[in-house]
Amino acid sequence: MIRVLLVDDDVRLHELLASYLEQNGVQVTRAYDGTAGLRELETGTFDAVLLDVMMPGIDGLEVCRRIRQKSRIPVIMLTAKGDETDRVVGLELGADDYVGKPFSPRELLARLRAVLRRATPEVVVEKLVVGDLSLEPASRQVRLAGAAIELTGIEFDILLALARRAGRVVPREALLDEAGRGDVSVGERTVDVHISHLRQKLRDDPRSPKRIKTVRGIGYVLAKDVS
């Protein structure tokens, strides 16, 4: 049984999603505002959070920010807005996916399952080592010169895609596909945002990056000889 927390002030949406998801093996706990959602996260155990952006009081973006301060639980943002800037802000704060309203419960369930698969991938290799950088796909741990580095789900997926092709250029589109973010409504800027965050966390100078290099007009390459 998948356990999710649905945080949204739309009562009708709660009824619709709870009915559909619970018929498909998903246990739904409901919260009708950001404060209640954060309280549920403190006391309950969940596999993922479905989080509306526009809510009275504490909005979804602030809730996402607070979640990421304490947890790596998968977060799917729900929004009626079509503004790319709003989507990018959510992703910058650590959201794992974005679904624009109106959406079908079937689409949301598919997105939820995809996010959970990425959060608990099958073991392909025990460890990938690129210079002083090591990744363990099974535990989703990253170490730089032996020190643990905390990444969000999508940051890990993008870094893993680069590490598997270390020394070779990976087009932006391929990175989106590897991370399960081929949705054109999100756009290529998503990759650029997360590459910027990865550089910061891997201590890679953004003005002259040596670890994750940009190949203008194509994509990125993870250098094999940086240590």
Task: Please outline what is shown here.
The protein is α/β, with parallel strands linked by helices and 227 residues long. Helix content is 40%, strand content 22%.
Key structural traits:
five-stranded parallel sheet, four-stranded antiparallel sheet, alpha/beta, 227 residues, single chain, Rossmann fold
What can you see in these coordinates?
The chain is of the alpha/beta class and 227 residues long. The protein has two domains: 2-119, Response regulator (Rossmann fold); 128-222, Arc Repressor Mutant, subunit A (Orthogonal Bundle). Helix content is 40%, strand content 22%. The strands form three sheets. Strands 2-1-3-4-5 form a five-stranded parallel β-sheet, with helices on both faces. A four-stranded antiparallel β-sheet has the order 6-7-8-9, with helices on one face. A three-stranded antiparallel β-sheet has the order 10-12-11. Helix 6 crosses helix 7 (172-178) and helix 6 (153-164) packs across helix 8.
Biggest sheet overview = 5 strands, parallel
Shape: elongated
**DSSP E strands, number:** 12
| Second rung of CATH, namely the architecture of the largest domain | 3-Layer(aba) Sandwich
